[in-house]
Specification:
Elements: E1 3-4, E2 13-14, H1 15-23, E3 35-40, E4 45-49, E5 55-57, H2 58-64, H3 71-90, E6 97-100, E7 106-108, H4 134-139, H5 144-161, H6 167-174, H7 185-194
Antiparallel strand pairs: 1-2, 3-4, 5-6, 6-7
Helix pairs in contact: 3-5, 5-7
Keywords: ATP-binding, Kinase, Nucleotide-binding, Phosphoprotein, Serine/threonine-protein kinase, Transferase
GO molecular function: ATP binding; protein serine/threonine kinase activity
InterPro entries: Kinase-like_dom_sf, PIM1/2/3, PIM_Ser/Thr_kinase, Prot_kinase_dom
Amino acid sequence: MSICTNPDHPNPLPIEIALTILANKGPSVPEIIRLLDWQDHPDHFVMVLECPSPCEDLVQFMKRHSGRLDEEKNRQIMRQATQAANMSCVRGVLNNLMIDRETSEVKLIDFGCGDMLRTSPYRSYSGTAVYSPPEYHERGMYYGRQATAWSLGVLMFAMLCRHYPSDYDLLLLKRKLWSKPGLSTECCHLLRALLQDKPSRRIGLGLILSHNWFKLVVLLPQ
């Protein structure tokens, strides 16, 4: 069991508990799952978490939508995922999405594969491999906020295209040649900004929600 220290607790805690406590510190926000109680036993720990109902994880949500979301539904999910990622970083945590089936509200959950946010680079990656940033594979290190922006780009691409970005997709994005019928110019631009292979050229985590894609107004047919 991985453990880490928490400034508000005298003894080291299991990392999932420590990170969930940190993520819940301060006013409650709808995008982060609430920790209601926890107990630490000699050989295991117990967490009592908020349980939004009905809910499902991202894989189940995507299957129910035939593996792909339209641009407007994608924007709804991405807005919440980005807000949750920003708030997690503000509270010192880097992280599985759970989605309310009826309202499409997003919550961050499962901090067991997360980590404390720090200013120094990370040299190991414990999340889902397909979301790992290219700088980790090239140099064996990455920074938390830049890697989070990349993972949001992978999420956005997968929800729009029904598959994760391939090396060829990433090459086309880098050369500004990638497009997909039915997607707005702003949508393709944000994907390019998120999936820049050079971290210094990647859009900052705090700037994502200011992108023009989130300002588009969808006109529904009369």
